[in-house]
Each structure stands twice: as structure tokens, then as C-alpha cells.
Amino acid sequence: MKKKQILIVEDERIEAEDIKMSLQKLGYAVSGTAFSGMGAITKAEKLHPDLVLMDIVLGGKMDGIEAASIINSRLDIPVIYLTAHSDKKMLKRAKATEPFGYIHKPFENKDLKTTIEMALHNHEMANMLKESEERYRSLVENAHDAIYISTSNGFKYANPAFENLTDWKKEELCNKEFNFWNIVHPDDKKLIKEKKEARKKGKEIQGRFEFRITTKDGGERIVEANTVNIGKQGEVEEMGILRDITVRKKAEEELIKSLERYQKTFEQTINALVSALERRDPYTAGHQKRVANLAYAIAREMDLPEEQVEGVRMAGLIHDVGKIQIPTEILIKPDHLSEIEFVMIKMHPQIGYEIVQSIEFPYPVAMIVLQHHERMDGSGYPSGLFGEHILPEAKILAVADIVEAMSSHRPYRPALGIGKALEEISKHKGFLYDPGPVNACLKLFYEKKFKLE
Fold first, then answer.
1. Domains plus CATH for the chain?
2. pLDDT tens profile 159-172
């Protein structure tokens, strides 16, 4: 291991030689010896030692304290004072130069070694801390997000991004006369006051929150804030990170408007299909809407995700659209259907699927339409699917469809009533119909007094 280099500053040559011998015995290398303040500065700049042992009382115009102060300002070298004198005035001057040690003459070698080792260690730690602070300062100063530190008296720090966000300069923000509320939008002041009050009481504000700021020129920006308490106990400071989300929020608003237009187009498409079918088949007028309402209520009762609930409702509105290609005389026939006619009727889920699949719905509407006559035991149509091979939405629609159909008038029979319809799904629960939708449907009618409308 390379020996640490030490510069001795001592105007007494014999004493300087004694110190040199002591240092060499302790395992240090002496890079040089200076006998005056100016000599100490010159040799420190030339030799760059690891440490300076500085006698305070030196001959000439410059004493050791003044020399140490200059070395401190120009070079990153720790200084330890050596002195036989220690009056209060001298000690005060010495402390102002932030020395890394102070040794009284005469001293023991073990005391000298301990002081030197502690000085070298503390200097190394101080440099590491300084480097760390510089790294973090660089990160903060160059961050894209606005970062600030504030106290009850106002801003203590604001990075360049905060200046860019608010259009206020750091000097203006950190001025004691600056009013923090200048940058908070009037409509959001109550929110910020509530959070500041909670912070004053020592409560930690968890999570991010949004509010609007007012820029120096009166502009408005939306920010996402993340704040935390820092500082010693009793000195509550707030560090906050503000991210400008103005562009994102505007994009979200445009996206919502676009989705609303998209949804409106879907609704118009569906209503057009419903109207076209009901003009051909007056006996089923309103059937699809009632089925959609019941299926929607069942899905909600089952606590399904919103997208599934909406998919069920949309599919319910057009689940019989395939009947548009079935001859009208079959749809309104007052007698029982022949085998061939029933086969034609059973084609309507497939026809409906082919009509709907070309429309880009955000839900599996076409597949729900295709499967709404499938049954749990595989006895349904058109594909004879069973159990888990049937979509959950289609299982819901199957229950809603049979309940509404049995409750309503048909050309070939009068309405059987809601009681018979509920008896049908109860009787075949688990065989033809999925228990989940059945239980939800029964609860709606028996406990929540749901009505088909």
C-alpha cells in the first residue's frame, strides 16, 4: 500500500526534523517541509500531499491559520494544526478554517497517529459525501420534472425545470416576499391548503395528486404532484416533484371525446339494426331491448367488470339480428313451425354473427350473438357447445332471452308469465343454464322486484 504523503509546516527546523522522524516511524512519508506560511502554500500547490501538519505560530507576515485558509480555498487537502498555544481568539480563528484536527505540543506518537488517521478518514468521507451531493444535485438540476423544497416561510429551493414550469425565476420564488399561492390555481387552493394542514400536523401525504398551477404570465398548467416531508423533527420541510401533464390531460380529454363519438356510432349502428328487424317482425318489437336490459342487470348483479357488462348489453340489443334474413311469414306464423321452418329459425345466430362480425366492436359482440342459444349440456345450437366452451356473456344472454321470451306474447301462443319463466330456469339450472346468471336473475325478480321493461 502506498504511504500517505504529509507536508510538515514548522518554522523551528530541529522540531520539524523531530516531527519528520515521528511520522516516518509511524509509517508515513514526508513529502516536504515548509518553514513559513508562503512556503507552505507554495509546496502544497506543488506537491499535493495527502495531509498538511501546520504549526499555527510561524515566523513572517503569515501565520499557520492564514496559510491554512488559503490552502483550504485553493486545494482539497486536510489540515491538522500543531501548536503550543491555544487562547480563545486563536482557537476561534482556527475553527473558521475547518481543520481536520488539532494537536497540542508536545504530543505522543500514538496521539499523532490517531489524529492523522481520523483526519484522513474524515476527509475521505467528506469527499464521498461531496461527490454524492454533486451527483444528486446534477440529477435534480437537469431533471425534466419540477422539483422544489419549501417550508412554512416559502420556497427554499427550486430547480430549473420548476422555473420553466412556472415562468418564475429561482430568485423570485425563493424570495421571502414571494407568495406561494401565486402559483396555485384559485379553484385548487382548498385542496392544497388541506394537504398543507395535514403536513403541518406531521401526517404523511401518500400517493400522487393532481392540481393546476398559474404561471407568471397568467397561463394554466396541470401538474401531477408527489410530495414528502423532509428535515429534522420540528423543522418540517416539504420536497415536491411536479410533472407537467397538461399535454397528456388534453390528449386524454380528446380520447374521451373520440371514444364517446365511437360509442355513439356503435349505438346508432345497433339501433338501425334493431329498427330494421322490428319493422319486419312486429311481434318481437321491444324483445331485444328488454333482453338487453335484463342481461345488463344480471351482469351487474354478478359484479362483472364494466367492459363485460357493456358487451352483454350491446349484444342483447342485436342478438336476434340474424332473423332479418328469415322470411317474415315464418317469423309471424301463428301456428307451430314445421321441422324445415324451425331449422331456418335455428340459423339466425349464425346469420347474426356473419352480419355483426364485420363491425369493429370493442367487445366480443359477434361471438355472444353466435352463442346465445347454446346450452350448458351441449343441446343448444348452432354449434352444440357446452360448459366452459360457451362465453360467460352468452350464458347470461341465454337466461335473459328465455325469461323474456316466455314472459311475452308470441304469434303461436299467449304470454306464459314471469312465474313460468323463472320456474323454467330454476328447473334447468346447471343443465341448460349456467347457475351464476340463473341465481342473479332469480335474485333480481324475487328480492329486488325487477320488472321487464
1. 5-140 (3.40.50.2300), 146-244 (3.30.450.20), 268-446 (1.10.3210.10)
2. 999 999 999 898 88
